[in-house]
Amino acid sequence: MKLCICAGPATTGKTSVLRHVIKKLITMNLKSAYLKIDVQYAEEDELLASEFGIPTRKIYSGELCPDHCNVVVLGETLEWAQSVSSDILLVETAGLCLRCSPYVDGGMGIIVLEATSGINLPLKVGPMLSLADTAVITKIDRVSQAEREVFRMRIQDVAPSVRIREVNALHGIGIDPLVEQITQMGDIHENMLLRGNPPVGTCTICVGKKEIGWKQHFGIVRKLHGEVFYQGE
Fold first, then answer.
1. Fewest CB within 10 A of the end CB: N or C in the chain?
2. Which range of residues forms the domain containing residue 232?
3. Residues 137 and 210 occupy one common structural domain
4. Does residue 109 sit in the same domain as residue 224?
5. Is residue 192 situated within a structural domain?
6. Residues 50, 109 within the same domain
7. Has residue 150 been placed in a domain?
8. Burial class of residue 158 in the structure, from the number of CB atoms within 10 Å of its CB (0-12 exposed, 13-18 middle, 19+ buried)
9. Domain identity same for 97 and 70
10. What is the mean pLDDT of residues 39-43?
């Protein structure tokens, strides 16, 4: 079985891209399974199951960020996808934590970015882009050719080795090269690891401390003027 993890900011068209991918895979007699990871509401799994009849699952990350949730549930998800005889597992994560990468070695990492979000967006999304295999640019018909070229250049500045695919996610134009890349990747293997390093620490705000000001917190903190430092035992 092959694994493809798709991340990216909200409203970029991740589900629309995967919808056209699934449609193409069906014509190739390849069976997909789909997992949707979101924070508090999603219906994409139900829509794709209804349209294509594929096995789907959904999980809300709740107190976890979606990318962290992806890491901790992925093992059981792989077992589930294999139990329903899937050829390709597609995981769509909300990708809201810009410090992290949801991708794992042994799978394919896709980030979906919309061209209308501003030419500097690729400089802001961190390892979600820099550790991806492919960057899919959507809504290319909404911007000028010059803006498209600058957007591509920004992606290449951050991730020189990433493959760039420009697609019309509404109609599926340009989706074939992406599908070919997915079908040609290697199969999953045992003991897959998270691609890249997670953040160096958990802040006390993340675990529920509400007081304002760095003096009220411990662990890795920072002042307004100065670098991060460690406070506490």
1. C
2. 200-233
3. no
4. no
5. no
6. yes
7. yes
8. middle
9. yes
10. 90
- Residue found by looking up tokens 């809201």 in the block: 96
Report how far residue 102's alpha carbon sits from residue 97's, in angstroms, rounded to the nearest whole number: 9
130-144, pLDDT tens digit by residue? Answer: 999 999 999 999 999
**Half-sphere exposure (CA, 13 Å, Cβ side) for 95?**
29
Q: How many structural domains does the chain have?
A: 2
Banded model confidence at residue 219, pLDDT cuts 50, 70, 90: confident
Concatenated DSSP letters of the chain = -EEEEEE-STTS-HHHHHHHHHHHHHHTT--EEEEEEESS---HHHHHHHHH---EEEEE-TTS-HHHHHHHHHHHHHHHHHHTT-SEEEEEE----TT----BTTSEEEEEEEGGG-TTGGGTSTHHHHT-SEEEEE-GGGS-HHHHHHHHHHHHHH-TT-EEEE-BTTTTBT-HHHHHHHHHSPPP-SS--BSSPPPS---TTTTT----SGGG--EEEE-SSS-EEEE--
Residue 65 confidence (pLDDT): 79
* pLDDT bracket for residue 216 (50, 70, 90): very high
Do the domain assignments include residue 217?
Answer: yes
Residue 202 has pLDDT above 80, yes or no: no
Residue 59 lies in a domain: yes
Local confidence band at 83 (pLDDT 50, 70, 90 cut-offs):
very high
pTM over 0.85: yes
Asked if residue 49 and residue 83 are part of one domain, the reply reads yes
**In this structure, what token pair is assigned to residue 224?**
């307004």
Q: Write out pLDDT tens, residues 9-35.
A: 888 999 999 999 999 999 999 999 999
The answer on 116 and 218 residing in a single domain is no
